[in-house]
Request: fold
Amino acid sequence: MWILCGGLSVAFCIIGWIMMPKKKIVSQWASVCSLAFVSLTLLMEYRMVLQWVIKEDWSAMMDVVPHMFSFCTGYVIILLLANAVLMGVIYTKTKDL
Reply:
């Protein structure tokens, strides 16, 4: 499930960048959806780890969690910056009009 949410967040971010010169409102909504799916991705990751704790599958946690932390950190930083820049560009374009 977290892979689906992560893919949707990246897709919405790309849609926001593609639609930026054409339709500002669609670009803003795509950016908001991207940020929402970033948070859902992190919640799904947390849920996966929680299930491993409930099942006491410590070996799965030791194998996956250190690598997933690095991946999730990079993922969140990149998408937050991309969406922040997108919203900043949209704001400055609407402010100039």
